[in-house]
Amino acid sequence: MRTPSPAASLLVALALACAGCESDDAGDGVSGERRDAGQDAAAASGGAGGAGGAGGSVADAGPERAITIRFRAQVGDRIYSCGESYPAQGTTQVAITPRAFKLYVHDLRLITAAGDEVPVAVEGRGPWQLPEVSLLDFSDVGDCDPAIAVNAVITGRVPAGDYRGVAFANGVPLALNHADPVTLTGPLQAPGMHWTWMSGFRFLIAEVAQAVGPEGQDDAGSPGGAGILHLGSVACAGSFVTGDIQCGRPNRNQVRLDGFDPERDVIVADLGALFADTDLSAPSVCHSFDTLCEPMVEALGIDWLTGMPTSGQRVYRVEPRGEDMP
Amino acid sequence: VKTWYLALLACALGLGCGDAADAGDGHSHLDAGVDGGRDTGVPAPSADAGDAPDAVADGGYHWDLPQGFPLPRVPEDNPMTDAKVELGRHLFYDPRLSGNETQSCASCHRQDLAFTDGRATGLGSTGESHTRGAMSLANVAYAITLTWANPLVRELERQASVPLFGDQPIELGLTSIVAIEARLRDEVVYRQMFAAAFPEAAEPVTAENMNKAIAAFERTLISGRSPFDRFLYDGDQSALSASAKRGYELFNGHPLECFHCHGGFNFSDQTVWADLDPFEPEFHNTGLYALDGAGSFPEPNTGVFSVSMKAEDMGRFKAPTLRNIAVTAPYMHDGSIATLSEVLDHYAAGGRTIEDGPYAGDGSRNPRKSPLILGFPLDAQQRADLIAFLESLTDEALLTDPRFSDPWR
Predict the structure, then answer these.
(1) pLDDT digits over B36-85, tens only?
(2) Between 20 and 30 A from A143 (CA), which of A296, B51, B53, B394?
(3) Candidates A5, A178, A205, partner chain B, best to mutate (most B CBs within 10 A)
């Protein structure tokens, strides 16, 4: 065989134009949890502060202690329960029935009284946690499918100290998001979370069905439902072969909540707030491309046009744990 | 490859065709045919056909490549071996690779149909329809991208997860890597075959290795033994009818110039091989639809736009290989054209006009249409000649080769 033509080489050079489109993520250095490395390795690295992130202040701040960050799904001021009906939701104030609510969290930090951010060294924990990313699944709180486990906490270690706030991002870090899914483990093997044809993960799945009809009967079984958000990085380009993937719209937010005491408080994830500016009387199916995504994405603190984080998130807030919570 | 295009264009424009057209790359055999054709009216076989016909890959795998075919590109972490290919063949034909054990890869990629399914759009294991048709796997080893309109999917090892595990739509409907690994380990044949295929692995039966083996088998599905190949590479003048030879001239000549998108030994501009640095793949809007003034295609088949979200990618799809095209009807990404003759109508008109219904529109006026889709006159004889040529690309050996058949039967 002779060598390819110079014209083909020129095309290669022309093809290398896009670079630096995505700069939101400090997780580039994360090596990723390979399945061959085993889940034990993931578990072992958690307690040693191996979670990466901002780093630095952990060693200075005294001995570590275990910590549990608690989340609670709600629809407005009511506790989320799958299959329950919630009246007056969305712009048209219709009744909805939640069907699924699950999301990834990474880059979890606590905020000290002085305002410093201290990364939480997240432990590998069963199907829910890797040091790099955790999965929260509220989907089956309630009666949708009691056989399926739920997870509403993230466990890890932090230096002993007085914490007054919490910060985190939704989504899967860039370094893991476009890895070959069959090589991943833990929460990155959760059914339904990988978006194979998009070659990345769904960061957040929220699905509600509208309850309609004069008798108020539930037509939740109708195809499409009334509100579906599958959030993920879109407008991606690049090559898995070189590992060089950039996404025009990363769609990872940055949430910062003040006044959070990890001993006393929970982080509320409000499904009602997520869909507050969406018309739920008609099918509103968002796969992160469609313009009807805009109010959902903006509610999560993401700029619709750029996919970059804003300070305008309205889905998460701090509330007291309440006496009935463990 | 591009040199060859330019040379052909020069021929078509009457600028003269010298031997320089041959010098550009080792796979520009078709230009020799056209060169010859200018004098004799019949394309002559290329003098340099026959490069690397029996290349041996790492791992000792003998490709047994057809004349004129370059060595396929193989990922460094998945070298070809006979054991791996045979394992991949077993997996490819195994319905246990679907959630409900009703379908295998071969359900949508049937050997007798050049590894397509004869349907307009695919039908998954749970009854859900795909929005696009199953692409032929013939010569998929040479493809830059692997699906109709996704620039991200470029490795067979990764692509396999889409039909296996994808849920939008559900195809084979696997949901859990742990579950499929357990299912594979239950099969004693697989325990032996995985160990032979992945001798270094402490636990060879993994989903990752499943995908690797399937990819290795898919790379063996080389198609290059058609009548056209016998004519061009073996010098068998009797392999093509006079009509097919005229069709070949039309295909490569002005004003049809089909070769721009369907050029090279694989009749696709998205072709790559072992020692060619892959260039960025091109996708084309051929004016198949025009739903509005902006040239939109019907959702969800908006082409590369559905991945890139760039307006200029609306309606852009991959030009598939034309090898075996006569047995892979219906045509286009959505199976919306039933016959090759109607496909020619589409291109002759410079885009398809749909008179009424939700998709009504004059595709020839699609503002995002490729500038290469200009339309051309085509009389009845020319139409028959082109179809005869396209039919000469059917590789009966591929359709019947026992190496590619169901090993479980």
Answers:
(1) 333 333 333 343 334 444 566 556 799 999 999 999 999 999 999 999 99
(2) A296
(3) A5
DSSP secondary structure string for all residues of A91-160: TTTEEEEEEEEEEEEEEEEEEETTS-EEE-EEPPBTTTB-SS-EEEE-TTSBSS-TTS--B-EEEEEEES
For A230, which residue in chain B has the nearest alpha carbon? B168
Q: What is the dihedral of CA A122, A127, A133, A137, to 10 degrees?
A: -110
Contact criterion met (CB below 8 Å) for B186 and B352: no
Instruction: Find where tokens 């699905």 sit.
Output: A207
Say what the ipTM of the complex is: 0.79
C-alpha A282/C-alpha A262 separation (Å) is: 39
Peptide bond into B169 cis (omega under 30): yes
Q: Does A282 touch chain B (CB under 8 A)?
A: no
Among B270, B76, B313, B9, CA closest to A8: B270
**Which phi-psi region, left, alpha or beta, contains residue B36 (left: φ > 0; alpha: ψ -120 to 50)?**
alpha
Please tell me the distance in Å from B379's CA to the nearest CA on chain A: 36
Across chain A, where does the E strand assignment appear?
64-75, 78-79, 86-89, 94-112, 117-119, 121-122, 134-137, 153-159, 163-170, 194-195, 200-201, 204-211, 227-231, 234-239, 244-249, 255-258, 265-270, 284-286, 316-320
Judge: B6–A7 Cβ closer than 8 Å, yes or no.
yes
Q: Reply yes or no on whether B391 is catalytic.
A: no
